[in-house]
Amino acid sequence: MNNQLSPRTYDSLHMGRSSIDLYSNDVGAPFPEITSFAAYVGGSPTNISVGARRLGLKTALLTGLGVDPVGDFIQAFLDKEGVDTTYTVRKPGHRTSAVVLGIEPPDKFPLVYYRDNCADIELTIDDVLAAPIADSKVFQFAGTNLCKEPSRSATMHGAEIARRSGTDVVCDLDFRPTQWHDPRAFGVVIRSVLHSVDIVIGTDDEIKATVLRDASQMHLTHSQISDTKIEGDALFAIRTLLSLGPKAVVQKVGALGARVHLQDGTVIEAPGFPVEIYNVLGAGDAFGAGFIYGYVHGWDWRKAARLGNACGAIVVTKHGCANFMPTYEEVMAFAEERGGL
Fold first, then answer.
1. Is-above-0.85 flag for pTM?
2. In 10 A of CB 56, how many CB atoms?
């Protein structure tokens, strides 16, 4: 990895969805038996912006909020956290999105999205042009941004601006099958933007989904994609992604940690931190925050991914995501107790 990135006003600018997340308080209960929920802030880029801010980065968020009380709820939380929301846009006539989540550890975490007419998918090229992409060290976006217009074109334009400006681009694949009219479209669009991307982050199933082609795979669920041999395995997909431009693909492998795949074929193993799983939802965003922190500070690939693993391990033991992101002091203490980064 290169030395610390050149000075900019912002360490990272995050673009994409935001929501109010309603997490079941009845841990272990099937969805029909849930009696109450806790309200937190969610949405992958929003979570990452909060996590990176708590670690110490100067972060900004480009998202869309409705002119509604839910938007006020998210705005108040971000203001309290110190995330710069100068470029977050209110979208009259559109709703702030919501997600309802069940928690049935160790491996069942059902969730339902309420994103009809949602505000963040209405982000436009004008919104992107008003944002400080060229004044940020990292521009990070989520794959879900690309599922519909106008957010799709706006995000792709943002990545192009970043590339011209020397801002590093990080794409978190964030594959949510229900947000796409056809799972194959996810891969088509992701592959088309990779010439402007420096680093791709994703799980095995997300990485595999980038090469979905066969009609028989058209209606696969998230879990089915994970269990399917698509063109061999995830390694084929990783090689495909690297051939399209990124210098690195960061493969999140759960309790095993992460692997960083480089263009020259190098694979860097970053072991995880074993913990007892309480709720996996949001752990990947915590990883993204930690990894970006290390990347911005010029850490080597392994150490940056190890910090991401530590952040993810902490959040996987918590009830929610953004609200439970660790501070730098907390995550370093956690890591030191387990042998360090």
1. yes
2. 14
